[in-house]
Specification:
mainly alpha; 9 helices; disordered C terminus
Length: about 220
């Protein structure tokens, strides 16, 4: 194979690693297997990524960037503040639970972080990026409506994302491929959105809107 500069080879190897690990899990992602996935020598992986930590960081950064990009690209549509929050949450849910399996892969990396200090550092960076994005989008939405949030945006974002992560994990654990989301998970997600809107506005959480539960594939 012709020589390819490291700047070009790096994203190729990251994508090969993501494809392989998404199909077979992190444990299957040895440097030999990643090299075979792309059709290059094993030494190419070692040359491009000095350590496994460097490789894992590049993978998580790519997954996070793709995930955040999907959410940022979503339009809140028209309507009241609460309606627009719900629209953005649906986009977030679809990005997190899509059939590409990347959220499962991120969850596997999160499990590694429980015992691996290097992985913990990487996942903390990812969490800060996602929380920062949520804060920016929440502040922008409030400003567009001329609202002053009842609590700091970061406190609301951490509250929402903590609940959302738990519900995403529940969904991925309980759902079989091709199945509709578990109704109890969707009901809890509706309640999480309602309480989050209540925290933003400084009002008691409204009841979830009728018609959501069971009527849509997302929310």
């Amino acid at each position: 194979m012709a020589h390819v500069p490291a700047s070009e080879r790096r994203p190729q190897l990251v994508q090969a690693a993501i494809d392989l690990m998404t199909r077979e899990g992190i444990a299957a992602g040895s440097t030999r297997a990643i090299a075979a996935e792309l059709g290059v020598a094993q030494a190419t992986v070692h040359y491009t990524f000095g350590t496994k930590k460097d490789l894992y960081r590049a993978i998580v950064e790519r997954l996070t960037s793709d995930f955040v990009g999907e959410v940022r690209a979503a339009s809140p549509g028209d309507g009241a503040f609460g309606e627009q929050v719900r629209t953005l949450v649906q986009a977030l849910w679809e990005a997190a639970t899509g059939e590409h399996g990347h959220c499962v892969l991120l969850s596997e990396f999160g499990a590694l972080a429980l015992r691996d200090p290097d992985m913990r550092e990487i996942m903390l960076e990812m969490q800060h990026d996602i929380e920062g994005t949520a804060v920016e989008m929440l502040d922008a939405l409030a400003a567009a409506h001329g609202l002053t949030l009842a609590l700091p945006a970061r406190r609301i974002a951490v509250h929402f994302l903590g609940g959302f992560d738990g519900l995403t994990a529940r969904h991925l654990t309980l759902r079989n491929p091709g199945d509709r989301p578990d109704p109890n998970t969707l009901e809890a997600l509706e309640l999480l959105v309602a309480t989050t809107v209540g925290l933003c506005l400084g009002t008691p959480a409204a009841r979830p809107e009728p018609g959501w539960h069971g009527d849509r594939d997302g929310l």
